[in-house]
């Protein structure tokens, strides 16, 4: 069901080459071989925005919360701050006081070539100051280096979040101002994203993180980035964020950046909105441009998911139609007609054919959570039956779970109508019912990582995109939402204040990337393991068995204070699991 798309590369060859020219070329190759790894700015950093666009949800915290007095060494007192580090999934509040074990004498990260990853470093100011950080070049074996351009330093910006009348300063955005004002006895987290250029030779690369106050260097923390001697495998599953892009020609440049951002975060695909007129006609020329951009993004998966209903078969109502027992804002489907059916089938066929020309397989949704919106049930059945009959080679997917929660028999409502069941809770009993009626049914999971940018722990998105979906054995994992202006608190990214830039990331978005990467480490270990025997293979199988036993497949009702629905391990645990997987990969 899944395969990896290959990218083609063309090589320009000189028609005339003098001996001098050949010598120059040879010298350049030699310099590349022994010199700087990836001096160009990595793609992720080119498509990221710097400052978030203003929004009522993005208000700065009003109250000044300061930490309790902290015992500082003579060196810390002299320079005016305490340096400390916590796991990246640890929430650092402004009044957090680091323990002695948190004090940062050095920083370390381990990863594979071609990967992005995070490093967290924080200060507790003993007196106010304008703080900034930068990373030097990292020196490695044989005179090779990882250039400073492969490190992006951002400030973790807190916003005011109000839950049940209680306001709190929640660390949300990763912004890139030149400096950050830190008040006396306030803790401030900085976020370093590294990129290990493709082809970087194995080994340990060392450099420093420079900490500046008022532009003057006050500390330099040693940093070691170890590059593993293997390349990560693709997971063979759909990993994606729901994504409601505006798809008119003026937006295409931004879409290109947004898709690159998602692929750089380990997503293997992205759902796409379709360009349609107000009358529901597909803008075919715009569609071709959108699909070209999608293909150019280079997702490793081959699926293109399309939710096809708004303005085509349905309309959005801001004022619910109570005559059909519609008591919330949602979609209302148009009356059925042969003309509408014909247009829908023709539209689906056209999108399918255009996708195929670009090596993509169409996955079609005719409705969104129809089980929990009963007035949409008949239309969902109608259009799924229509596509099954007239375009049977298109995969049909449906978001489910809400209907079961309302005691509606979704296993019967959609039986035989869809190929892919995306469930929003872990429902093994319901999934078993579906498999009884359709042994070939495929399952995905979605929205189990809690709210987006709002309150909550940071571990759920990492677990969800990584170890949880691995243990579940599902075909995909998706979360709401990359960006949607109508559900601001759920966003994993934010539009930049400069509209020409891409989106500004959140800490939760970075945790989603780490989860997707965990999934790749597990896929690599399983591929290396295969049917091998011997002590290393036995140890790897024992690790995977123990890991599977630790992961609890369950969901709870969402709690806006506690965060995600899935039970998580303490911060730092998933780093330990990944390190162990990497160790076993190398032994195999």
Describe the model.
By secondary structure, the chain is α/β, with parallel strands linked by helices. The protein folds into two domains: 34-227, Immunoglobulins (Immunoglobulin-like), CATH 2.60.40.10; 238-573, Aldolase class I (TIM Barrel), CATH 3.20.20. Helix content is 30%, strand content 23%. The protein has helices spanning 19-34, 43-47, 74-79, 252-264, 284-297, 338-357, 377-390, 402-405, 410-413, 428-437, 459-472, 507-529, 535-550, 573-587; strands at 36-37, 81-84, 107-111, 116-125, 129-135, 138-139, 145-146, 151-163, 166-175, 180-182, 187-195, 203-213, 216-227, 238-241, 303-307, 314-317, 330-333, 361-365, 395-400, 420-423, 442-446, 476-479, 493-495, 503-505. The strands form six sheets. Strands 14-22-21-20-19-18-15 form a seven-stranded parallel sheet. A five-stranded antiparallel sheet has the order 2-4-11-8-9. Helix 11 packs parallel to helix 12 (507-529), helix 12 runs parallel beside helix 14 and helix 13 (535-550) runs antiparallel to helix 14 (573-587). Residues 1-34 have low confidence and may be disordered.
